[in-house]
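Fig. S4 source data, part A: sequence.
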Amino acid sequence: MAEGGADGEDSAEVEAELQSDGPAEEATTQGPPAAPEEEEEEEDLLSTPAFLKQKLKVLEKELADVEAATEAAKAEEAEIAGEWEAKRSRLQMDMDNFKARHYNQTIEAQLEARIKVMEEFLPVLDNFDRARASISPADEAETETNARYSELHAGLMSTLEELGLQKIPCVGEEFDYNLHNAIQQVPSDEYDEGIVSAELQPGYTCNEKLVRAAYVMVSAGA
């Protein structure tokens, strides 16, 4: 009888274990429930007017920030462009001034060189003038010789005039301290006071620059 009771108890325990294992396996097989309702609720939240308005405000703020940054960049670009334009203008002005100075210096140097050459020729011109004033041809041969000298003088003067040499007007002109060197002031019935009455030695200019002043006599009036 005791053994029969023990067997009965063992059978009861096995059956209890089987019954307890059944629901546990079933629960393990089913797992956590799906959440489609939560996804729908999240989608509904993203579609609410309040959320969309908030999102619109954020986008508008970002757009405003971008526009402000763009305007700031444009202003900076304009400022930099203005600075570079001012620098370019100053450099261009400096270059133009340099070119002008260089050109003027070159022209001045050329003029000085020409004047120096002319000054070397002035004594020759003076000798020609003195010779012409003193020569009185007595015969045909002397006349021909004098004519050749006159042609030589004319050719020399033509060449010098091409280089810019100009004879200073004297007799009958008002005395000019910049062009005339007065040797003497004499009474004159022909010229008013302060007018050049005689030329003793011709003067010359080159491109309006004095080469040599003319030596003259000035009228003191009647």
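Fig. S4 source data, part B ends here. Confidence is low (pLDDT under 50) at residues 1-11, 17-31.
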